[in-house]
Amino acid sequence: MIANGHPYGGKGYVILEEGEINPTNYGFVIHHYLVSHPDGSQEPGTYTMDEAKAKIDQLMMQR
User: Fold this and answer.
1) Domain residues for 31?
2) What's the domain count of the chain?
3) Which of 25-31's residues contact partners 24+ apart within 8 Å by CB, and which partners?
4) Closest to 50 measured CA to CA, from 2, 8, 4
5) What is the DSSP string of 2-56?
């Protein structure tokens, strides 16, 4: 399940939370993060928050 999106870099990239609902307390448990491009396509792979930020920084330098 994907939850919140966190805009990063000011160029339209978004870091998405992916995880599941804990049935005991109904809280969202984040397993990892995904990177979404400005056009809505997704970068392959899963990341920690710091890895996702670094990936977006790398992608912005390439453009």
Assistant:
1) 2-62
2) 1
3) 28/1, 28/3, 30/3
4) 8
5) EEEEEEETTTTEEEEEEEEE-TTT--EEEEEEEEE-TTS-B-SS-B-HHHHHHHH
pLDDT value at position 6?
Answer: 97
* Cut 0.85: pTM above it: yes
Q: What does the block give as tokens for 50?
A: 């710091």
User: How far apart, in whole angstroms, are the C-alpha atoms of residue 8 and residue 14?
Assistant: 6
49: phi then psi, degrees, rounded to nearest 5: -60, -45
* pLDDT tens sequence across 18-49: 999 999 999 999 999 999 999 999 999 999 99
- The separation between CA 43 and the C-alpha centre of its own chain, rounded to angstroms, equals 9
